[in-house]
Design goal:
Number of strands: 5
Number of helices: 11
Largest sheet: 5 strands, mixed
């Protein structure tokens, strides 16, 4: 383990392990009956100290295994000279469990405990249960402690990653909500300006025109009325510029028909994550009829009738309804084909979104935590502009969504 990544508690435990190893080796050197024992204790300590500062031991399991083998060999040689060296087995347990994988460390720990017991017996010490229980119990405690710590560390890392993902997701969600709120406020302001200021100025202009026509020739009020009418006309143009400035980004670079056609392009997604295939208003080419696994439906767009310029609230409502209906098709219908049709008639404009998917029972749809808010939202948009919204569907028979808005006078 890299010392720079250690917490204060782990640094303290690492220092305690070094002190324990040093103290036990000093004990073995002091209790040794020969100079060779003292020298071997010093060699074992030198090998241990070298491994503690070698970066390769911390970064490579192969280097760690070689170091443990050399350390173990010097310890076994020390065991042959003094039985006091068996206590060194306890810090060795933790080193072996920490540096070796579990499938290797546990057998090595058992062999170390057996070597400690055999050395004690081989030096002619009196046999008692503690001779066998001590090293084996120490090995069991070391295994349980290290494996338990590793399990806690893995769980802590998993929770840390989960918290990081939650924080990132919360930030993304907050950004998406801010963006959605900005777009919704822009739409609301555009609708309010159009429905109040713009309509009021248009009415004032019409009334002033009527008053201008009703004035007798040469009336001194004619100039004032003409000036008021021109001021109303200028302010109406300014209000319409405000409405265009607040137009949603989908409508900034073209007409409603162009925005709907872009919605049908491959990969547009209609607000969903699944890819769509198709070629806008063009029929699929021969051989393209097969649906790729996991792909969305092929979407076709068409316009009927003579297009007319629609007020911004109409365009926003029809675009949002098309996006929501197509998103439902992608997410829930498992459809192979879908078609969006924008129809301009004498007194109304109609949007139809039809798919050949699984269908559903419209009367059974209720808002829940899993969804169900899309249809009421689409209906609310249509009815807020004096239009109608209908859904025709049945299980296994596809779905048809239709919205009709009355064209305003002069459109």
């Amino acid at each position: 383990m890299d010392p720079r990544s250690l917490t204060p508690a782990l640094r303290a435990l690492r220092l305690c392990l070094h002190l324990l190893m040093a103290g036990l080796l000093v004990l073995a050197a002091v209790r040794a009956d020969s100079a060779a024992g003292t020298v071997l204790a010093g060699v074992t300590g030198a090998v241990y100290a070298a491994g503690s500062y070698l970066p390769s031991v911390r970064s490579s399991q192969r280097a760690a295994a070689v170091w443990l083998a050399v350390l173990g060999a010097s310890w076994v040689a020390l065991l042959c000279l003094t039985p006091e060296a068996l206590w060194v087995a306890f810090p060795l347990y933790f080193l072996q469990l920490h540096l070796l994988p579990v499938r290797r460390s546990v057998p090595v720990v058992v062999l170390t405990a057996v070597a400690a017991i055999l050395s004690y017996v081989g030096h002619g010490a009196p046999l008692n249960p503690g001779v066998f229980i001590g090293p084996l119990l120490g090995a069991a405690v070391a295994v349980a402690t290290v494996l338990g710590y590793q399990a806690l560390y893995r769980e802590s890392e998993r929770r840390r990653r989960l918290i990081e993902e939650l924080i990132a997701t919360r930030a993304e969600l907050a950004a998406a909500e801010r963006h959605a709120g900005t777009l919704a406020e822009r739409e609301r302001l555009a609708r309010e300006i159009h429905d109040t200021l713009a309509q009021g100025l248009s009415s004032i202009q019409l009334l002033l025109r009527a008053a201008e026509r009703a004035l007798p020739p040469g009336s001194p009020a004619a100039g004032h009325i003409d000036g008021a009418r021109r001021a109303a006309q200028d302010n109406l143009a300014e209000a319409r510029r405000f409405v265009r400035a607040l137009t949603p980004p989908d409508l900034e670079h073209g007409s409603l028909a162009a925005a709907l056609e872009r919605l049908c392009e491959p990969g547009a997604g209609a607000g969903a994550h699944e890819p769509l295939t198709g070629a806008g208003a063009h029929e699929p080419q021969a051989g393209a009829g097969a649906r790729r696994p996991g792909a969305g439906p092929r979407v076709r767009f068409s316009v009927s009738g003579t297009p007319v310029e629609l007020p911004t609230p109409y365009e926003v409502a029809l675009l949002r309804i098309a996006q929501s209906a197509l998103a439902n098709t992608v997410r829930h219908a498992a459809a192979a084909r879908a078609e969006i049709t924008l129809s301009f008639m004498d007194a109304s404009v109609t949007l139809d979104v039809v798919d050949d998917g699984a269908g559903f029972d419209p009367g059974a749809v209720r808002p829940s935590s899993d969804g169900g808010f899309g249809l009421p939202a689409m209906r609310s948009r249509a009815e807020s502009l004096g239009g109608t919204f209908t859904v025709e569907s049945a299980p296994g028979q596809g779905t048809a969504v239709a919205v009709s808005l009355p064209l305003p006078a002069g459109a």
